[in-house]
Amino acid sequence: FFFLRCWQQMWMALCCVLGRVTRLAPPTRLAAPVLSASRPALHGHAAAARAPLRLIRSMADDAAALEELPTVDENGQPLSKNALKKLLKARQIAEKKAKKAAEAAGRGGGGSAPASGSVESGSGSDGGPEEAVAPWGFSDLGVVMSAERRPDFAPAAVAQLGVPGGPGPGDEVVVRGRLATVRGKGSSAFLVVRAGSLHTVQAVFFRDASYPRQSKEMLSALQSLTEESVVEVEGRLQPAEVLSCSQDGVEIAISKVRLVSAAAPKLPFEIEDAARSEAEVDASEHTDRPLPRIGQELRLNNRWVDLRVPANSAILRVKASVCASEHT
Length: 328
Description:
This protein has 328 residues and is an alpha/beta fold. Helix content is 37%, strand content 17%. A 5-stranded mixed beta barrel has the order 2-3-4-6-5.
């Protein structure tokens, strides 16, 4: 008798929910309580009845929420069951977001919102403390068109970095050149800036625990740079051993990076491939990873890239020096 009454109550609640969803007339009331004080023998089965009762309460709550939703669309057509479920789910998500926002505002002391156009030092979505503006940053100069004059701008010569008589460790420098390589891994970024096709220097940036959000944005911007892009790097020189660069005794700890001109993601050929000798390419043909061979026609059709190869650039420099000495 007890289980019969439980199933009867569940069936009537289900009919009530279906009636409200399909806009049919629901039952006027639920069934009478199952347990009664006059039947002490049934009290031992109360634990078994809890799960069906929780289901009934949840179904009744959903039915009450569905009553508050619109029953027709903008064209006056009745909404389907799936549409009503989607509206109910969207309302529940909005209520949860509003509740979280109210709790975050209560923890933050109810401060006023930042003014429009101001620099918003990011607080995370968890309502954590705000970040101060970091002392470093990245900017894209866009299309310059020589509209802005910088008479005092004098970038340091990359060839003079770390040599006697030039800027040394501890000095603030600004260099401009093309990105030879960009390497990023986790919480660090390494840029190799090339100037004059011959001289290179490494610039580094590491994640700062004091500015977690801004560090992540800075790393993402640096790692998304394309090779052969023209950049300005500002920072402090620090001693380092960098065997892959011509300035192998120092590196630049980045404070500012400005993108002057972005290169295409894919060039006709890589500078590194064009700089290899024919003997090196021939020796790799019988290995598992043969090196690409850059033909003469490809070089001439893309001479603007080929002239950035160190050997070709050095040839033109020697010719220019000979011509200059003949005229003097």
